[in-house]
Amino acid sequence: MMNELLQHALTVFLGFFAIMNPIANTAVFVGLTGEEKPATQVKVAFKSLTITFCIILTFSILGNTIFHLFGITLPALRVTGGILVFLIGYQMLHGESSGMHKSNADDTDIAVSPLAVPILAGPGTIATAMNYSATGSLQEIIVTIAMFAILCLITFICFIFGQKIVKFIGTSGLSIVTRLMGLILAVIGTQMLIEGVSGAIKTF
Questions:
Q1: Residue 130 lies in a domain
Q2: pLDDT tens by residue, 115-157
Q3: CA torsion sign, 115 to 120 to 122 to 126?
Q4: For residues 49 and 144, what is the distance between their CA atoms, to the nearest angstrom?
Q5: Pairwise CA distance, residues 13 & 9, whole Å
Q6: Helices then strands (H, E): number in the chain?
Q7: Into how many domains does the chain fold?
Q8: Is 148 a member of any domain?
């Protein structure tokens, strides 16, 4: 049982890490807040990640309730989520940011949008959280939430030291990280799609 939980924790962490991509998103954060004072940057980082965690926490806990409320099946979520995650990964493989992660010119509070939604807690992140927790036991749901909390903490640290990290890694380094995360995401999306199709076939 312990080995299964550890394996689940590792899988969840890597999945969330790939889709949130703290390194690449640090560059986005620096671009959005580069002219702000350090104290303001800390407030923006904390607010955006708090909102992000609350969103993922909600979908992780209420995954089954949402399924029943809207008549959604797990295979349908996995197929749709798999496609979303694959598309994000595919775009990242080409060194591009996903269209789901782009901001709007009318946004006034960047901590809420575009940082929290859709950059950090986008459709792919939400679908991934629901996929990991929808059929899991209480322990697995807790592990899923804990892994995401750890990732939020790592992302917060990356944001705080964002300018130094971006300067150290450089443009080429960010491109390499983005492409590697894209490959991982594409594989995760494909796996979710396979599980969704397999589950749908068994259901019918």
A1: yes
A2: 898 789 877 788 888 888 776 678 888 999 999 999 999 999 9
A3: negative
A4: 16
A5: 6
A6: 8, 0
A7: 1
A8: yes
